[in-house]
Amino acid sequence: MSSRTIVVGAQWGDEGKGKIIDLMAKDADMVVRFQGGNNAGHTVIVGEKEFIFHLLPSGVLRPKTVCVIGNGVVVNPEALLNEVDRVTEAGISLDGRLWVSQGAHIILPYHLAYDRLIEAGAGDAKIGTTKRGIGPCYADKVARKGIRLADLLDKSAFRSRLEDVLAEKQKVVKALFNYSGPEFDIEDTYRQYSEIAERLRPFACDTAVLINRAIREDKNILFEGAQGALLDVDHGTYPYVTSSNATAGGACPGTGVGPTRIDKVVGVAKAYTTRVGEGPFPTQFEGDLLEKVRGWGNEFGATTGRPRRCGWFDGVVAKHSALVNGMDELVITKLDVLDHLDSLKICTAYEVDGRIYETLPPLASLLWKAVPVYEEMPGWKQDTSKTCEAQSFEDLPENAKAYLHRLEELTETKVSLISVGSDRDKTFAVA
């Protein structure tokens, strides 16, 4: 039976969605990215090879799977083509398998400059962006100042849009940032990106038509989210969020697929919690434990290389994510990282100025002051990546099973898949 499934991050991103999408893509006809840009970093390990995808859907390693970049994604064309080249050099054919929406907005050099200037001028109020121009590109999209792939492929339209936008951008950066750097050169930008457009042309199509045709043909389709629910611009820890809808609801406007066509939502969460960049993080570890877990879990950003902040599993965050995503199933990754610990803590609520919050507070200022309310559970002190060679939930240590059952209770969501290592074969379904 075919299915249309959305896979999203249930925390602040970096949950291991790339690996899970790659596994699920084994049975998928199509994988569709629906938001974000090359600020995402989805890691897939096959044997001795590690692949990090920033724009290409994580199903690209499955030779029969069609990969689609939807209109909700903002595309840095140079980054995309570099990724295509790396994949092709690795012997993976993309002929007839990669399609990019004509409606996807294009990241141009002035978006990158804008991002750097905004973040540099923010001081202590900085968001901690990847400085890849994602936010400024989305801002232009909403302000109706954006340039789409369709515009880029039409030389006349591209020239006209570029002239209008660049003149305005130059004035703005000078006025706001006292910018005295090089001018945004129209001729250089037009020439460079006109050449890039020709390399992109074979991949461009109306992806809404493509995807909906696949639905009518009863194909299995995975919709791949980037970042995580707590970074969603509407439902995350605003303003420390990304610039798009990273929750499951973003899949529909980001692809041109109606909500009645979606069958299931799967959330992916680590067995603990991590966060990259600025923003409140109530359950963050202190002292040596932070460095130990970071080392055990190799917690460094796939996109930026920045060390991730690590902490105990945050049940408030996970419950919020299950709610706003309408999650049907939960995948737990990196359970094996907790093998070393004598005991584990789970945050079930926050205390803020004497008040208990069992749901996510509406303001970041409250989260900064939040004191986690913890319950403690015993650890299992066994190597789950080795004891689970039979790939069965029943092979897990009893304390590990109890821990997972408690996560199910807190999120009111069934755990359907567990990962106990980075390789494909270190993952098993829960019956």
Helix vs. strand class: alpha/beta
* Span of the ends, CA to CA: 18 Å
Strand order of the largest sheet: 9-7-5-2-10-1-11-15-19-20
- Uncertain spans: none
Radius of gyration, in angstroms, nearest whole number: 22 Å
- The number of helices is 13
How would you state the average pLDDT, rounded?
Answer: 91
Q: How much β-strand is present in the residues?
A: 15-25%
Largest sheet: 10 strands, mixed
Tell me the overall shape. globular
As a percent range, the share of helical residues equals 25-40%
User: How many extended strands?
Assistant: 20
Protein described:
By secondary structure, the protein is an alpha/beta fold. The chain is built from 13 helices and 20 strands. It has helices spanning 17-24, 77-89, 109-121, 134-142, 149-153, 155-177, 186-200, 207-216, 288-296, 315-325, 364-369, 384-387, 398-411, and strands spanning 4-9, 30-33, 42-46, 49-53, 66-69, 74-75, 98-101, 105-106, 204-205, 221-224, 264-270, 273-275, 309-311, 313-314, 329-333, 343-352, 355-357, 371-378, 414-419, 427-429. Strands 9-7-5-2-10-1-11-15-19-20 form a ten-stranded mixed sheet, sandwiched between helices. Strands 14, 16, 17 and 18 form a four-stranded mixed sheet that branches. α3 packs across α4 (134-142) and α3 packs parallel to α6 (155-177). The longest helix is centred in the middle third of the chain and has 23 residues, at 155-177. The chain is globular, with a radius of gyration of 22 Å. The relative contact order is 0.15. The mean pLDDT is 91.
